[in-house]
Design brief:
single chain, about 325 residues, alpha/beta, 5-stranded parallel β-sheet
């Protein structure tokens, strides 16, 4: 067993989950959450059991309620809708996603055309493009580049979703730059540190194993990318599972070394269950492969911190 490190929760996910937990403690149930707070079915289920109510759209929330916005971020239109319903909002958007929102606003203010690399329909994409929809064009992959149309008289820049494949994003940027040599880079890399670190770790392990198991949910973009990275980096097979219950015995046929990692929204308890499942099938010799150390911590959203502090001082 080769166990990837880093794996699992990133700082943004940890902050978002704790935000919902603290909101439930402070305000009491129910606390509404727009969309899944993070893309993991286990996490959502646990929070539901504590009194969180997950909704798809803001207009499903009763007026005057408490609502937490997910780690993926929301558009200004969602903030405005929440205000019209007199909702008490707590914004758990990952600070690294907030950074991309700020970059989009800044480029738009300078009348840039923004080529946004991301996956259509993903909540992060919808939220970021909502910052300046008239300035932004979505580019999903390198093949999309040939269909991009810009106004040659106006400046052009690119931004990206934070949870993409690092290699594919760079390929997309290279193709964009071939077509548009004047293309401006964002002030800093938009792919988040946790996404990059988990992909680097999988690359390291995949060359040494026949099977890679990636723990995480199907709607988690960074989790799905880890499966792709494993296959591209030398693993004979790679599968995504939500839990040990989804692993199939036949995957182990002829396998001597199994690699294991988890997406950035996956609690360690799910990885432990997979380790136990594999140990029961003679994969009990576990070597942790460390490619980076992560120490970043994000503080709770300021609106929640203020309320908790005020209650403590009352």
């Amino acid at each position: 067993m080769l166990l990837a490190k880093p794996r699992g929760y990133c700082a943004g996910v940890d902050r978002a989950v704790v935000t919902v937990e603290k909101a439930l403690e402070h305000y009491g149930a129910p606390v509404y959450v727009r969309k899944q707070i993070v893309h993991n079915v286990h996490v959502v289920s646990v929070l539901e059991s504590k009194g969180a109510i997950f909704v798809e759209e803001t207009d499903e929330i009763p007026p005057n309620s408490v609502v937490v916005f997910s780690a993926h971020g929301v558009s200004p239109a969602v903030h405005a809708e929440a205000a019209s319903l007199n909702l008490k909002t707590i914004d758990a958007t990952c600070p690294l996603v907030t950074k991309v929102h700020a970059e989009a606003r800044r480029f738009a203010q300078d009348d840039y055309q923004i080529l946004f690399i991301g996956h259509e329909g993903h909540e992060e994409v919808e939220g970021t493009m909502g910052e300046a929809p008239e300035h932004m064009t979505l580019v999903e992959n390198p093949q999309d580049v040939e269909n991009v149309v810009i106004d040659p008289s106006r400046p052009v820049a690119w931004l990206s979703q934070t949870t993409l494949s690092v290699d594919e994003t760079l390929e997309t940027v290279d193709r964009l730059r071939e077509r548009f040599p004047q293309l401006l880079d964002p002030p800093s890399d938009d792919i988040c540190y946790a996404t990059q670190n988990r992909q680097v770790s999988v690359k390291e392990i995949s060359a040494k194993c026949e099977l890679m198991i990636v723990v995480g949910s199907a709607n988690s973009s960074n989790t799905v990318r880890l499966v792709d990275v494993a296959l591209e980096s030398g693993s004979d097979a790679a599968y995504r599972v939500d839990s040990a219950a989804e692993i199939k015995e036949e995957w182990l046929e002829g396998v001597k070394t199994v690699g294991l990692t988890s997406g950035a929204s996956v609690p360690e308890i799910l990885v432990d269950s997979v380790l136990e499942w594999l140990a029961a099938r003679n994969f009990s010799d576990v070597e942790e492969v460390t490619t980076a150390e992560e120490h970043l911590i994000f503080s709770l959203p300021p609106e929640l911190r203020r309320e908790i502090k005020a209650a403590e001082n009352a």
